[in-house]
Design a protein that fits this description.
By secondary structure, the chain is of the alpha/beta class. It contains 4 helices and 4 strands; from the N terminus they run H-E-H-E-H-E-H-E.
Length: 112
């Protein structure tokens, strides 16, 4: 018996997959993101280093530039972002509909 049946029944027959982009220079991360969207990934998780917020923001901007609305973008700082840094990164990327997948920085924007 499927586990979903034991838990009351499945709500959907599909679960969207995402591709997790490693911490690379912004241009390389954007190149890989474009490739993954081209092969069908509708969700991308952009790993950021949490060290230099301007470079992290540049990575998010470059990924957004190549994928746009063809993919949803999650930003994951691997618990390396403080709340203040997450807010600052959010402001640096305010024109981009993204959300944080990091449990340490539980913030989400209304654009989604």
């Amino acid at each position: 018996m499927p586990v979903s049946t034991l838990l009351g029944g499945a709500l959907t027959d599909r679960v969207p997959a995402y591709y997790s982009l490693i911490v690379d220079p912004p241009e390389e991360t954007a190149r890989i993101a474009a490739e993954k969207v081209k092969v069908g990934y509708l969700r991308l998780q952009v790993k950021i280093s949490g060290k230099d917020l301007e470079e992290d923001a540049a990575t998010v901007h470059k990924v957004w530039k190549v994928v746009g609305y063809r993919s949803r973008i999650a930003v994951d700082g691997n618990r390396g972002l403080t709340v203040a840094a997450a807010i600052h990164l959010d402001r640096l990327c305010q024109a981009i509909p993204l959300f944080s997948s990091s449990p340490a920085t539980l913030w989400m924007r209304s654009q989604l």
